[in-house]
Design a protein that fits this description.
Blueprint lengths: L8 H6 L7 E3 L2 E3 L6 E5 L6 E6 L3 H16 L8 H17 L1 H12 L3 H22 L6 E2 L6 E9 L2 E5 L5 H14 L3 E5 L6 H13 L6 E3 L4 H10 L5 E5 L2 H13 L4 E5 L5 E4 L6 H13 L11 E5 L3 H12 L20 H16 L3 E4 L3 E2 L7 E2 L2 E4 L6 H4 L6 E7 L2 H9 L6 E5 L3 H10 L4 E4 L28 H4 E9 L2
Parallel strand pairs: 7-8, 7-10, 8-9, 10-11, 12-13, 12-19, 13-18, 17-18, 19-20
Antiparallel strand pairs: 1-2, 3-4, 5-6, 6-21, 14-17, 15-16
Length: 498
Amino acid sequence: MKMSEHMDWHARAAAVHPDGRALIDGQRVAAADGQTFSCISPIDARVLAQVARCGPADVDRAVAGARRAFEDRRWSGQPPAARKKVLLKFAELLLAARDELALLETLDMGKPVQFSLKVDVPAAARCIGWYAEAVDKIYDEIAPTRDEALALIRREPMGVVGAIVPWNYPMIMAAWKLGPALAAGNSVVLKPSEKSPLTALRMAELALQAGLPESVLNVAPGFGSEAGEALALHPHVDAISFTGSTRVGRRMLEYAARSNLKRVFNELGGKSANIVFADFQDLDRAATTAAACMFFNQGESCNAPSRLLVQASIADDFVARVVARSQDYAPADPLASDTLMGALVDQAQLATVLGYIESGEREGAQRLAGGTRVRAETGGFYVAPTVFDRVGSSMQIAREEIFGPVLSVIRFENEQQAVAVANDTSYGLQAGVWSSDLNRAHRVARQLRAGTVHVNQYDEDDITVPFGGYRQSGNGRDKSLHAFDKYTELKTTWIRLD
């Protein structure tokens, strides 16, 4: 039996003293001006660490180190097979540190430790390992030109990549960027969210231990308005890969325009529609999945199916099933091995979610479950899984990303109406279709404006398929071989053959 299967997580948590210093030029360092901020656990509001509050001076040092590492080719000049070896070792070390990383992730952002163990750490390691394996299997091209010319098309690393990741899946989101960016030969400056910086710092240490040369990966924790803005404005950063809110994604584009027109790849929010037709034969499975995917990770997922569209003829029965399943996700101790839903990331997010719940009631939606803060006596930030029925498409809870455990049920009469309501959003990240009519499933899936459409399931996933959205859900794709498009330049070398 592995240690994590019988771990006393509370005892281990009491002994944790994370190092909150930045990692720049291969060294753990304080911020240049000595400033720190408190990293607070949403589980019980305990202070986990004092973390370096990096500012422009620290970002400048990190970028300078990354640029120097790129220009002297200590990493970019290594053959793909050599980069592969280091990244495979990195993935191996992530798995070896599974218990440590899972505990840090849970303490830092509140998710149940069983999911940090079973989902987050393995997914991050698989991502790094998959891109390691892919990098020496991607071939360049020769264009079909006339006989007297030879046109070579090569992928080259972009240079210095600024990676800004969110707080909801800190390890996974970091891996989605580090895997392809490092495999392609880039140097990276990683700015984790100030709400969950701890695993990014530890991951970077493990990358160094695996053999990644110093300065190729730097981690500058701090606030978005300070470290994040400095990174996005920096003239020696060649690309920004950002995952977060649409509001901040707009700023990334502005920063690029104000600086060096760096490439910006945004993976932003969502308000995904999950459409259930009356002809689907296993409504219990559909209801179980609708609740599980909505309340997983406390609803703090950009692809959460937060708009549940149900055909009117089955709506009463189906909604009752979803409400019953929602009770399985009553918030509990994230350090208990059987907990399914933990704490929201901080006090501000708690206030945001409760504000949306108030909005739904004010606008006339029918609250069937949840809607209240719970476990307040712990000092943590917990909200009961919440289900609103008879939601109108114009209501705030149906249009804006809540990023919390709040499900909006919208009833529809026919297929045409379902598609129109599903597409009536500024987002386009994911969607779901439940139908036993294969023709209908294909027909509806083709009409939905979303980067991923799930059919008769939701959130099944693999590193081999791209992740990203249409419209204000962003541009570019994470995961799959398509992610290399974000971290490489295409160079044509045209040779005249006399």
